[in-house]
């Protein structure tokens, strides 16, 4: 085989290879163009089917709207009408869907290898407007707020005074009975008069007041001569009323004409006298009189004081202003409470204070600051000193310290029931120069009453 033949064979092979490659390229391009044309036809059919579905949905919505309007004009409720769900619009949707894609069907006949006439997703679209036309479900009722506990109705002041008389009459230590038993004797001896004075001292009447009462009784002919029990009782009653103060003005300043509104009352006293409890009971007394009350928990040194005051206030719907943390500045609580009472236009603001201060200087500084800060918002009308009636003369020293520190306007005697000696009423007024305005009768929520001198004396002589 010579060189020319080899070259000829190689040339033929090369031509065949080139031809095959060219044929493959042409065929590949043709296949791609066919696929692209097919995808375009499918996309066009899908778009036309979607448009048909939308037109069918619009026709169905229009038909439902027309029927609803006709039902309204006829006086029916369209929300309850079943015509919205009638199946009549469905054939219209189907005919519209079958009429519109006529051109795509011809294209399908020309390309049988890719049948697309039965597009599965197109007929399902018209169902959406039917769901939209259904009446909206009624909104779920909002959860009702928890009902507030019903406020208690406190006892009236008049009813409390009647109970005061009854409690004092049943007291285990009514010094009036002991005095009456001595004075009812005929021709009293010197020993009898000494017994009278001892009885008064044991009852915490005080030395000066006891001496004055004995002198007045000695001069009374109804007692020194032949003793008539009725006359002895009448004489003793008059003398005791003179000591207690029958004509003393014992009204709280909030109840006097021209009182400020809100009227501010600051409660002071050592811990353990029932100060916070008395503040809560005083709020109930004002609520019983129809007054709007706000309380301020300025005793921030005792952890349970604010909680205790809130418990009292919750029972009669009285708001309590307190600090979020123990040991906060009491003056800031008093300031906030006075601002809130002023904003609410309340009748009374009661501020509870701490009594656990270690010395007189701290006491005067703290109470003075509370009063000054409060008076930036409201004038202070009343400062009530709470004393435990069972402590007797032992509480007088503490009472004098508070009187000097802040200047008290009245006294509240707590626990003046069976265990109290009673004479403290006389001595505390004589020592402090201010009247006893309220007395605590016991542990009940309404066991706080305005002090009634005649009821008090009649109770201890009963």
UniProtKB/TrEMBL annotation:
<comment type="similarity">
    <text>Belongs to the GTP-binding SRP family. FtsY subfamily.</text>
</comment>
<feature type="compositionally biased region" description="Basic and acidic residues">
    <location>
        <begin position="66"/>
        <end position="75"/>
    </location>
</feature>
<dbReference type="InterPro" id="IPR004390">
    <property type="entry name" value="SR_rcpt_FtsY"/>
</dbReference>
<keyword id="KW-0472">Membrane</keyword>
<keyword id="KW-1003">Cell membrane</keyword>
<dbReference type="InterPro" id="IPR013822">
    <property type="entry name" value="Signal_recog_particl_SRP54_hlx"/>
</dbReference>
<keyword id="KW-0378">Hydrolase</keyword>
<dbReference type="Pfam" id="PF02881">
    <property type="entry name" value="SRP54_N"/>
</dbReference>
<feature type="region of interest" description="Disordered">
    <location>
        <begin position="42"/>
        <end position="159"/>
    </location>
</feature>
<comment type="subunit">
    <text>Part of the signal recognition particle protein translocation system, which is composed of SRP and FtsY.</text>
</comment>
<keyword id="KW-0963">Cytoplasm</keyword>
<comment type="function">
    <text>Involved in targeting and insertion of nascent membrane proteins into the cytoplasmic membrane. Acts as a receptor for the complex formed by the signal recognition particle (SRP) and the ribosome-nascent chain (RNC).</text>
</comment>
<dbReference type="Pfam" id="PF00448">
    <property type="entry name" value="SRP54"/>
</dbReference>
<keyword id="KW-0812">Transmembrane</keyword>
<keyword id="KW-0547">Nucleotide-binding</keyword>
<keyword id="KW-0675">Receptor</keyword>
<protein>
    <recommendedName>
        <fullName>Signal recognition particle receptor FtsY</fullName>
        <ecNumber>3.6.5.4</ecNumber>
    </recommendedName>
</protein>
<feature type="binding site">
    <location>
        <begin position="352"/>
        <end position="356"/>
    </location>
    <ligand>
        <name>GTP</name>
    </ligand>
</feature>
<feature type="binding site">
    <location>
        <begin position="414"/>
        <end position="417"/>
    </location>
    <ligand>
        <name>GTP</name>
    </ligand>
</feature>
<feature type="domain" description="SRP54-type proteins GTP-binding">
    <location>
        <begin position="435"/>
        <end position="448"/>
    </location>
</feature>
<feature type="binding site">
    <location>
        <begin position="269"/>
        <end position="276"/>
    </location>
    <ligand>
        <name>GTP</name>
    </ligand>
</feature>
<feature type="compositionally biased region" description="Low complexity">
    <location>
        <begin position="92"/>
        <end position="135"/>
    </location>
</feature>
<feature type="compositionally biased region" description="Low complexity">
    <location>
        <begin position="42"/>
        <end position="65"/>
    </location>
</feature>
<keyword id="KW-1133">Transmembrane helix</keyword>
<keyword id="KW-0342">GTP-binding</keyword>
<dbReference type="InterPro" id="IPR000897">
    <property type="entry name" value="SRP54_GTPase_dom"/>
</dbReference>
<feature type="transmembrane region" description="Helical">
    <location>
        <begin position="6"/>
        <end position="26"/>
    </location>
</feature>
<feature type="compositionally biased region" description="Pro residues">
    <location>
        <begin position="136"/>
        <end position="146"/>
    </location>
</feature>
<dbReference type="InterPro" id="IPR003593">
    <property type="entry name" value="AAA+_ATPase"/>
</dbReference>
